[in-house]
Amino acid sequence: MRSTLDELTKEMEELRALVASIAPVNLALSGHQDSLVRRYVSIRRRFDYAAYAVALYASFEKFIENLVTAYVQLESRRVQYAELPKKLVKKHLARTAEILSRGRIGEGRYAGLSELGIVKNLFDCLNGANPYALNEVAVVAHDQNLRAGEIDRVFAAVGIEAVCDSVRWADYLLDWYCNAQQLDARPQDGVPSATVEEWLKDIVERRNQVAHRGGNPDDLLGADKMRDAIQFIEAFSRSVFAMTVGRYLRDHYAVPGKGIQLVQRQGDGPHKKGTVVVIEKPAQRLFVGQPVFVLIDGRGARWGRIQSMKVADADVQAIEPGDAAANGIGVALDFKCPKGAPLVALADEDDVVWGRPDETVAPSA
Fold this sequence. Notes:
Largest sheet: 7 strands, antiparallel
Helix content: 40-55%
Distance between the termini: 18 Å
Shape: globular
Strand content: 5-15%
Oligomer: single chain
Radius of gyration: 24 Å
Order of helices and strands: HHHHHHHHHHHEEEEEEEEE
């Protein structure tokens, strides 16, 4: 799943570069000695905007579809087809039949697919084969552009309900809203639902206006407004990613016998704005650089790695279960942990969410 967010981040940076280039390029052209070049400055402005509007929505839609696909792939490895959410099984069957009936296999978004492959996947699913492969185009299929309601339906079909409501309390979206509204503190009731809905609606409608009217949109955005929309899409997407990662971590590691449960010592911390916790002696080995996460209701998850550990004010690189002195272990994290929240450490690496230990990881801050 991590690669889906990496790709979106890269594309948003490219869009920022496009927006930043519009004014200086047009300024240079407006002073060109060739009158024909000067005449086309306003035309370039319209088509720069058109490219921006289409690319912003396209990157966002691709991110949502790829994230859902990646999540379902992981779930299909964890449980049998019959144990998947009923909405997903129903959608997979109905949309597969619809795709086959349209007779467009091998074209457009169905390029590279074959009728035989699609039918075989469905046959294996319905007959309890293990392993099995879902028809991913059926899983992510949607009839409308990705406004709030359609996003909710896409995620609800894979078992993650009310995404657009839940992300209103997610860290990235709250930080974006506070910055946009110049607030000193996060609102207790989350980002207003109308704000989320209107931003998504505006981005979809601007894309549709360009698609339907070509290079003659009614309302060109200035560079600042373009950057605002990019910031919203990044904040919203990162928040949705944190919700999806939270569900993955909950099902794969926050269950008995999977992750290493770390219990915060009562009445002690967290310290340093939530980034240092004091935990009881763990049942398994802990070490610096180890993957760790915390699940947060309504916000998905925060995750990262153990940055350092202390026992009796001495730095240690690892804690073994039999260490007699290892009571009250100070653990420094690269994310904020709520007071009393159960941390979970991983015994092994997981590149679905974490990168290699030497890579920079972008946790849900």
